[in-house]
Amino acid sequence: MSAPSPKQFHNQAKNALADQQLRDNFRGAMDYLKEKRKSAFVDADEEKSVRTAAEAIRQRCLSKLPELLEQLEEQCIANGIKVHWAQDAIEANQLIANIANRHHATNIIKGKSMVSEEVELNHEMAKLGIDCLESDMGEYIVQLDGDKPSHIIMPAIHKNIQEVSDTFEENLEDFTPTLDVDELIQTGRRKLRQKFYDADIGLSGVNFAVAETGTLCLVENEGNGRMCTTIPKVHIAITGIEKVVEFLSDIPPLFSALTRSATGQEITTYFNMITSPRKSGELDGPEEVHLVLLDNGRSQAYQDEELRKTLQCIRCGACMNHCPVYTRIGGHAYGTVYPGPIGKIISPHLMGLDDTQDLITASSMCGACAEVCPVNIPISDMLQRLRTEAKNPEQPYHLPLKGQNVASSRLERFLISTFSFAATHPAFYRSGVWFAKTFHFLMPNKLGAWTQCRTSPQLAKKSVSQLLKERKGAGHGEA
């Protein structure tokens, strides 16, 4: 089976819709997550204030992004953290490979990191003989299956308990099948425990990087992030350049917005703050800490004031949980690292519109995603903008979006210009209406993709103006 691709979105979505087990898994999971979020925001006024505060912080920090990145680098270096800059995925993987080679590393244990998924770190390190093991339980489960995450917060959400048990049975020795969730979790933990001590390098993501103090913040519930960043002698953190915030005091409002939106928790079990390698006299911690700051298309989005709002995202996944498209087809159908509504507006910058043009139209435009976004990203507006870019080559850009104008159609432009001419020339328009009324029976029953799930529109025998004239002639004027 070929790997999912955004270019095959329609076929992948069709297959997902036909998978009743997948539909049932997502229905239960999404309903649960929506209720959890709802219970975390029982006061509408408080919810509004939390989201407004988080949005203001993200916009302020993004407005100063170049300066804050320089400050972050300076402060991290002063703290003893080595900072590396990666323009794209190739450069990021090369930087990490160089660090591994210097330490003669053959295995890396990973905490949860979507950016490492973005650069396909596991795959690229395997080419060099370096084994990467996922320690987040959801990531561990999908790795055992040779699968990919289907959600940015809960990677294995597409699986039910029976399917997880089957995965363990197929891949782990001496495992007794069980449907007890606690036993499944404990099985995974027992298998992973020694791996933390054996690993040459620990790798993690970063939720927030504080420019003021050079602190790397990591949000988690399982403890694997803390193990990855304290037990191995070398810790590598990788993150997108947009994750920087200005002050340490910016963290609590963002943390509250993130956890309540993602899992309905007031606070997560662990909140890690990493500011330096192990100091003299300390009992744990790595001897080296490296920070890899990845661009990979983010600068392109940053150059445009409107599209910059895409970078406000704090990766909570709430938009996915409330999206009527994602909740029915799941994350794999999108064929991208970041699925769902946020993925539709991030992926074009990472991959180009030529690969993702089908994703930006895979939306009901209901606005549910924007209503629950903890940082108020206007996702529907962003989708409208990207749809315009996919068809219009004349939008001004500092850095052009790859694939711009990919969905442009000569036929569509001809039809729109024809309608525009008719709408501004009454005689031509009336002639067209007469022709449509007279020969309405020629309207085909199938109109391409439009009638895949809709009935063909039927033209009325009489126009609205005719009906109004008849109504007036019959003595039914305005009251």
In spatial order, strands of the major sheet run 1-10-7-4-2-3
In percent, how helical is the residue content? 40-55%
Distance between the termini: 67 Å
Mean pLDDT: 92
Specify the overall morphology: elongated
Number of strands: 10
Round the Cα radius of gyration to an integer and report it: 26 Å
| pLDDT < 50 stretches | none
Major sheet summary line: 6 strands, parallel
What is the SS-derived class?
alpha/beta
Q: Report strand %.
A: 5-15%
Tally of separate helices: 22
Explain what this protein looks like in three dimensions.
The protein is of the alpha/beta class and 479 residues long. It is 48% helix and 10% strand. The chain has helices spanning 9-17, 20-40, 44-63, 65-79, 89-102, 114-118, 121-127, 137-144, 161-171, 181-198, 224-230, 251-262, 298-302, 318-321, 326-329, 340-351, 353-356, 368-372, 379-391, 410-423, 426-438, 464-473; strands at residues 82-86, 107-110, 131-134, 201-204, 208-210, 215-220, 234-240, 244-245, 270-274, 288-294. Helix 16 (340-351) packs parallel to helix 19. The longest helix is centred in the first third of the chain and has 21 residues, at 20-40. The protein is elongated and about 95 Å long.
